[in-house]
Amino acid sequence: MPDDVVLHPEMQILIDIKKSLPPVTTIEEMRAAWDDYSSSTREPYPDGMQVEDIQVPRSGGTVPVRVYRPAAAAETAPVVLYIHGGGFMKGDLNSSDSVAWGLSQETGMVVASIDYRLAPEHPYPAAFDDCYTVLTHVAGGGLGDGVDTGRIAICGDSAGGNLSAAVCLAARDRNGPKIAVQVLIYPCLTDGCDTPAYGVHAETPGLTAASMHTYWDWYLAGQTRPCTDPYAVPLKAADLTGLPPAFVHIAEIDPLADDGRTYADMLTAAGVETQFRCAGGMIHGFLRCRLQGKDSAHEFASFCDFLKSKLG
User: Fold this and answer.
1) Phi, psi angle pair for 306, to nearest 5°
2) Rounded to whole angstroms, how far apart are CA atoms 146 and 106?
3) What are 71-117's pLDDT values in tens digits?
């Protein structure tokens, strides 16, 4: 991290947690450490929050989904599909739990958190297929009563931001279910790993350039690199017209900062209503500090307010 970059003090919470974790070398150890890291900022559900785990049918199996409904939800509420991060190779319903229920609590909406298949065991397009399958299931009334299938949003962070953008592209291209809003939080959108941010922020406490190279290798195993499939690398999409209004939220101190910044510019140029926000002094993963710091909570509230303004 450059010497002239000022780290937001709330980020020290995440840095200290990471420092307490043991070194990792295997995929299993990486996933276990991620679970420990995630659990360190987890808190119990708010009073009245209803939570249910379901299985959504897919070709050859099912996709686990956790559905959250806050006490303040309307009788028929909009639904947000939430897609967690983790480099496409780690994370599950528990590691993303606090973010998902926070999204539901802050917006008053139903949230469906998607436990997609992980690389390298299941490379692209497995995760993408799982997320699109859940979209069609929800749009078809698969969550039952109390969900307004005419008001569907999609929200994802990091790898989940990639998958959210990809699902929006596919829904448009396939004349599929209508997505009303997309929220992309520090998304990874291209496999080049060669933007200026990758050089300036190659070694940050939240994410390193080297780890992103590895994540892309695992996620795109079997694909020709650099990849040009827009459902794998949305920044390569030739046409962004006709996509839902977008909120693109990046961390200032992040090798992925240019991915989100460039995509926001491309969306705007394509005539898509777009709000762009940079969390100053914050690192990749700042969402996890929302329960510990007021400024992180403010960043979290910013895209929740956007969702409410579009779907409320």
Assistant:
1) -60, -45
2) 18
3) 988 899 999 999 999 999 999 999 999 999 999 999 999 999 999 99
Task: Collapse the DSSP code of 160 into the 3-class scheme (helix H, G, I; strand E, B; otherwise coil) and give the result.
Answer: helix
Alpha-carbon span 242 to 305, nearest angstrom: 23
| Secondary structure class of 84 (helix, strand, coil) | coil
Neighbours of 77 (CB within 10 A): 22
CA pair distance 102, 113, nearest whole angstrom: 12
Torsion of the alpha carbons at 129, 151, 186 and 281, rounded to the nearest 10: -160
Out of 38, 158, 164, 296, pick the active-site residue: 158
Q: Which two three-digit tokens encode residue 192?
A: 């080049």
Catalytic pick among 254, 258, 259, 295: 254
Query: Is 254 one of the annotated active-site residues of the chain?
Result: yes
4 annotated active-site: no
Rounded Cα gap, residues 166 and 93, in angstroms? 20
In the chain, where are the structural domains located? 49-311
194 contact partners, CB below 8 Å, separation of at least 6:
none
215, 188 Cβ separation under 8 angstroms: yes
Domain 49-311 is found in CATH 2.30.30.140:
no
From 8, 284, 295, 296, active-site residue:
284
Give the pair of three-digit tokens for residue 295.
């400024």
Query: CA dihedral in degrees (214, 208, 159, 153; nearest 10)?
Result: -170
Beta strands in 133-180 (DSSP E): 147-157
| Per-residue model confidence (pLDDT) at position 5 | 80
Active-site annotation holds for 173: no
Other Cβ atoms within 10 Å of 199 Cβ, number: 10
pTM of the model: 0.97
Contact yes or no for 79/149 (Cβ under 8 A):
yes
Strand partners, 249: 185, 277
Q: CA–CA separation, 274 vs 277, rounded Å?
A: 10
> Peptide bond preceding 226: is omega within 30 degrees of 0, i.e. cis?
yes
